[in-house]
Design a protein that fits this description.
The complex is a heterodimer of chains A (about 140) and B (about 140).
Chain A (H helix, E strand, L loop, with lengths): L1 H19 L4 H8 L8 H22 L19 H17 L3 H7 L5 H21 L1
Helix pairs in contact in A: 5-6
Chain B lengths: L5 H22 L5 H6 L9 H22 L11 H17 L4 H10 L3 H25 L2
The chains are: A mainly alpha (about 140), B mainly alpha (about 140).
GO cellular component, one term (chain B): plasma membrane
Protein name (chain B): Sulphur transport domain-containing protein
Keywords (chain B): Cell inner membrane, Cell membrane, Membrane, Transmembrane, Transmembrane helix, Transport
Chain lengths: ~140, ~140
């Protein structure tokens, strides 16, 4: 059951990425190009997602436990440390170079641009390397 | 140029938020794509199948959209492959080192008012803006 649920939620997430324009790197790069061909659409993606999650999370967490598990698994780290800032900075540079972040990159595997098949393996190597460094 | 699409973008964003809310409600987990993907290898974690299923859902989503709308999903991906390799390495490494990406920090973290996520989101937005500025207006200009 949870496997099907995750498949459906991944589908829903991916449909959201596509409908919003977030899965199109050209749109992402234009959002980031404030002094050029600026397309502010992605601010509305963030607005819609945060609005729904901000309200929804409150109702969900008030229930005390999730449906298919005994407890919520929320991030426990609190400190703003060097890996957080350095990681976010590197992530932003990569995002600005390619216009892809992880969700849209995976969704784009199903669209079929050659560049996606170059980006995703490199991204997985980067993730694997960071996991090794972190251990 | 890309067309300004505030309504479609807002609706799409709301669907992303809904997926995150449902994942927390049903599974008790945060919808952070870099966290879900990076924990697939090594595949030792107890939630391996669930995580793989979520990623598979992402991969299948264009087919669903195309089946419903009858139109192909349009996107423009760079054909500068060395650049995409560097971008991919930075995105993957940075997201895991920083404990999240646009979804985990940007959507879920901001919605939980997490100080770590607020800092991470401000930092990656800043470096992304600066990167595009340099690529398009300093080097490319």
């Amino acid at each position: 059951m949870p496997v099907i649920v995750n498949l459906l939620l991944g589908l829903l997430f991916g449909v959201g990425l596509i409908v919003s324009g977030m899965a199109n790197p050209a749109k992402v790069l234009n959002f980031l190009d404030v002094f050029g061909t600026w397309d502010p659409s992605l601010a509305f993606v963030m607005g819609g997602a945060v609005l729904v999650a901000f309200i929804g999370f409150r109702f969900v967490l008030a229930r005390g436990r999730p449906v298919f598990d005994t407890a919520f698994h929320l991030p426990t780290k609190r400190d703003i440390d060097n890996p957080l800032v350095l990681g976010a900075a590197l992530f932003g540079i990569g995002w600005g170079l390619g216009g892809f972040c992880p969700g849209p990159a995976f969704a784009s595997l199903g669209v079929g641009a050659t560049g996606t098949y170059v980006f995703v393996p490199a991204m997985l190597v980067g993730m694997w390397a960071a996991r090794r460094v972190g251990r | 140029m890309t067309e300004f699409t505030p309504i479609a973008s807002f609706i799409g964003g709301a669907l992303i938020g809904l997926s995150a809310v449902l994942l927390l409600a049903l599974e008790g987990r945060i919808a952070g794509i870099s966290g879900i993907a990076s924990r697939l290898f090594p595949p030792t974690d107890s939630h391996f199948q669930e995580r793989l299923a979520f990623i598979l859902g992402l991969v299948l989503s264009p087919a669903l959209v195309e089946a419903v709308t009858g139109e192909p999903v349009l996107q423009a991906v760079s054909s500068n492959y060395p650049l995409l390799v560097v971008a991919g390495l930075l995105v993957g490494f940075g997201a895991v080192l920083g404990g999240g990406c646009t979804s985990g920090h940007g959507v879920c973290g901001l919605s939980r008012l997490s100080p770590r996520s607020i800092v991470a989101t401000l930092v990656f937005m800043l470096t992304a803006f600066v990167t595009v500025y340099i690529v398009r207006h300093v080097i490319g200009g």
